[in-house]
Amino acid sequence: MPRHGAFPASACPCSESGCFQRPAADWAPLQCRASSLCGRALDSAIIERPADADSGRVTILTVLSYTPNPDTPGDFSRYLHQFRSLVNLLHSLLLTATTLPVHTLVTTRYAEFEERLQALKARMLPVAPLAPPAWARKIFAGTFDKLQAVSLVQFDKVIFLDNDCQVLRNIDHLAYVDAPAAVFHSPDALQPQGGINSGMMVLRPSREAAAEVIEAMRSLPADTVVDGSDQAVWHAYFKRHPVYELPRGYNFRTNTGILDRDRCLAYIIHHVDKSSRQGTLKPEIMRSVYTRTGCWPLLMFPDALRLKVDANATAWNERFRHAPPLTAEEEGSPDGVRDRSLLRPVLAPGNLVGGLFNQIFALIGCCLVAHATGSALLLPEFTSHVLNGAVEPFGALFDEERFRRGMRAAGLRVLRKSTNARRTWSASRAGRTSGTSNSWPYLDYFYSVRERRRRMCTGLHPLETAAWRSLRPAPPIAREAARFRATAGLRESYGCVHARIERDMLFSADRVGAGPPPTLAQLQEGMAAVPALHGAREVFVAVGKNVPRKADEKMLASGRTAWGARFARTATGARVSYDSRWSSANSSYTRAAVLDFAVCRGAAWFVGWPGSSFSQGLAIDQQVNRGAPWYAACPLGQSCHDPAKVWKREFAEKTCTTRMAAELLTRRTDGGADDKLCVANRSWVCTSGGGGTASDADLKAVVEAMKPPLLPVGMHVAK
């Protein structure tokens, strides 16, 4: 069998953590079992073939359903939409080199459309349309033809895919997974109970199963149906047949929150974005979800942070879908046998995550994937959705020329680049333009064979290794220990593009009060006071939006800054980079950029002001979501005798303001039934500007859990 990267147990929340298993009055829980793809050790991630599997009688199945209705001629546009989606799906199956046959159930024959599908290697299976039940919504009437999948007894196993799916990696190994199998999705606004999603299922057809499914559809009470689709029928059917749970990456739905580690991990993307489902769930819905299911829904950064895949993204895969051939000597393999799955492209789609700074994280994370695995990294054009001021921080934060030099030094080769963005940055610096730009560089990097699997990781899943997971300990379990091993583990596993930098220190000068930023001498004093910072090689100084923009830019233009120059060095030899253009209209983007860029650079320390919402968010993200250590510096002119008061005020006014968020921050996962969080649902982030209030006890617990040690940088401590 081919070797595949395995998902951790946390990717299978139902079987691992008991999520979605609390009974509700109108929704009985499903029983799930871990499939062979859940929780495998990364060093032994070989998919075992069940004894009764017969890949010769397995097919990938799709459905193209349409019944002409003379009263509603506009319905044909729905058929065309399905057809276009199916064409994209079939293209993705071809580009991932599937060896399984592909069949399409068709209820109405159109020769010109079927010829196009047959050209994409799909075989037609004509069937009579299945009459939907009375409670079905009109928009979902065609989905009930999926139920006929279990009646295809000519196959031993059927891998069903919705037309709005896109396959990013070969899925032939699903032929050897026990059936029935499906992905259990997180609760959402329309389905707060959670459960399976029928967009991707592995089924075992039989006459008995076909009869049970039809009986379940006919006997299902209308008052128990949530959305009027086939989901309710499958739920009723699977109550009688425990389901083998597949990891989330096999049905990666774009309308739910996403885990950082899953950005470049998915096998199947399911495009289910609907206007009724977009946006972060409201706190009351989230609380209801937890009460009913025992799981928190996946949370997001701002609403724009959601995985998007361009409809034409497969075209990029088609252009560079094969890495250059490697010889046995170059590969470093004793027998010369190379794993072709490691050389397939890692697709980082355009419009990957809504915010510019989160795109930077996606770029860095996917670069690490390509760097570690020897795969092609394809990055279509970036699209920025950040508000005013977002373009310039990208130029200040992410020096493209320096990055390109580092990529070349590490054996990564630039394939194509557009200069539109650089012209935009230059014009913006000169004051000729303002606002955002939707023209971003094409950055296509291809792994050079010179590196010979440098720091090879298992499959295409470096973001799932133990080192990366140690950056996200459960709050606040083992936080102190995880601080010091996280960065070392990251560098040991992947290295960084700038490998010569042993340790970076990130310094934020965002602050609440007025006054100049700390001087270079004060920074030197602070670094000298903390022995752990003596190894810092580079310091990033980010002055936030509380500094007057025009005055600061004038200082920078004249070279007369508080640091003496644009670049300086501390007494310890660390290079200082000073720039005021980090601030964006949405601080959640900014702190994500600071944090994620620091993680890639191997930053072990962050210095921030305890009185600012910017630092509050960074503290939460780093300490809980990454586990990286940091220190807080008290701003000049402010009293620091009781930083907890400042923290409490900032929490109450700007960040993490709901009781639910405070509870989530301080919750322990000690194995108790009441305190056990769903492992897969820890990807929460407290965004600024939230409404609601938290009790004093909740806030105090948060403050105590998150309060960092103080770094004496220009401190005025009240006696």
Protein model, in words:
The protein has three domains: about 250 residues, Spore Coat Polysaccharide Biosynthesis Protein SpsA, Chain A (Alpha-Beta Complex); about 150 residues, no CATH class; about 220 residues, no CATH class. The chain contains 21 helices and 22 strands. The strands form four sheets. Strands 1-9-7-8-5-2-3-4 form an eight-stranded mixed beta sheet, with helices on both faces. Strands 18-19-17-16-20-21-22 form a seven-stranded mixed beta sheet. A hairpin with a 5-residue loop joins strand 18 and strand 19. The radius of gyration is 27 Å and the shape is globular. The N terminus and C terminus are likely disordered.
Give a quick rundown of the structure.
This protein has 719 residues and is α/β, with parallel strands linked by helices. The protein contains 21 helices and 22 strands.
Q: What brief labels describe this structure?
A:
719 residues, eight-stranded mixed sheet, Nucleotide-diphospho-sugar transferase domain-containing protein, disordered C terminus, GNT1/Glycosyltrans_8, 31% helix, Nucleotide-diphossugar_trans, 3 domains, disordered N terminus, seven-stranded mixed sheet, Spore Coat Polysaccharide Biosynthesis Protein SpsA, Chain A, alpha/beta
